[in-house]
Structure formats: structure tokens, C-alpha cells
Amino acid sequence: RLRVEIYTRSGVRFPPSHPNKIMENNDTIFDTCLSITKKFEGADFDTVTGNFDGQGMSFGILQFNLRAETFKHYILNFVNHLAYDYFPVSIEPLQRLSGDDSVTWAKDVMFNFNGEVKPEWVVAWKKFLTTPTVINLQKQACTKYFQRAKGLAGKFGFPQDDRVAMAFFYDCAVQVWSME
């Protein structure tokens, strides 16, 4: 049987020295996969990052972003922006602008002169990203990767109830989609 050792960017080894700790928790395998990928990505449901990668801003557990319109496609298109009145100004332009135009709008409205996201926007986005509706939308977006992980596990002869294998293949699906 194949033994896989993976290290996060911060040097944390996965699986841990005692892989049974992963097996003992009461989370679903999907939740375990999300938990592991959160550690690799350095992200959680409330993560907000600036324009360090040229994508404008990135949000949430899988760092959905403005330029590629993944944030619009998976999250913004499914919420009523008027229900979130705690933003300093309406986020409606992000629902209608193209990816490039969304990046320009975000830079003009949400960033300070140093190119950092203004603190009041970070607070508002974190509040938005942790509402039950938006957490559920983020999880729903993650299911396509979980389905892909199931396929990869089967392709390589691992059962779909093997938490360690599924966590590995889930992260592979999130990072590169295939094992070709």
C-alpha cells in the first residue's frame, strides 16, 4: 500500500505521526478534507486577502477571487447584496462588473494608498463570509472537488471511506484537478 507524506508550506507534516487521530474524529470525510485543505491553503471561511497575486481580492476557504470571477460565480450570484448593509458602500458593482473591472473597482474603493485592504472592509468581508448562507455556498462550491477526489481515489484503488486517502486526493483536486 502506498504511504504518502505531505508537508504544508509551514512545514507541518500530514498525515500526523498518529494518523488514527484523523480517524477518531466525528467529522464527515468531507469536513476532514476541508480541514486539511484549509491548513494547506492557510485559509478559512472568513479569509480575505488583497491583491498580492494580481487577482484583486480573494475570499473564503478556497480563495475565490475577483479577476477569475470565481467569487461572483460561486458566492455573489446567490446572495442579495442589499441584505448585507454593513459594507461601507454597496458591493453591487461586484455582482455586475467583469473580473478586470471588479479588480479596478475594488482597488479604487476597498484599498488604501499602500495597496492594502482597508480595515473596515476586512471586518465587513469577514462578517459576510461567516454568515450561514455564505458558509453553505462555500461548502457547496467545494463539493465538486470532493466528487473529483472520490474519482481519483477509485482510480488509484483507495476506498472512499479512507480519510487519509480522500484528504490527499481532495487537496490534489483543489490544486491541480487531475493526477495526469
Write the layout of secondary structure elements.
Layout: E1 6-7, E2 13-14, H1 20-24, H2 29-41, E3 48-49, E4 58-59, E5 64-65, H3 70-74, H4 92-96, H5 99-110, H6 119-129, H7 132-155, H8 163-175
Antiparallel strand pairs: 1-2, 3-4, 4-5
Helix pairs in contact: 2-8, 7-8
Alpha plus pi helix count: 8
**Average of pLDDT:** 83
- Spatial gap, N to C terminus: 20 Å
Q: How is the largest sheet built, in terms of strand order?
A: 3-4-5
Fraction of residues in helix: 40-55%
Number of strands: 5
Largest sheet: 3 strands, antiparallel
Low-confidence stretches: 16-20
Structural class: mainly alpha
> Helices and strands, in N-to-C order?
EEHHEEEHHHHHH
Q: Which word captures the global form? A: elongated
Radius of gyration: 18 Å
Strand residue percentage: 5-15%
In brief:
This protein has 8 helices and 5 strands. The chain has 180 residues and is mostly helical.
Describe the overall structure.
With 180 residues, the protein is mainly alpha-helical. The protein is 49% helix and 6% strand. The chain has helices at residues 20-24, 29-41, 70-74, 92-96, 99-110, 119-129, 132-155, 163-175; strands at 6-7, 13-14, 48-49, 58-59, 64-65. It has a three-stranded antiparallel sheet. Helix 2 packs across helix 8 (163-175) and helix 7 (132-155) packs across helix 8 (163-175). The chain is elongated.
Descriptive labels:
8 helices; 3-stranded antiparallel beta sheet
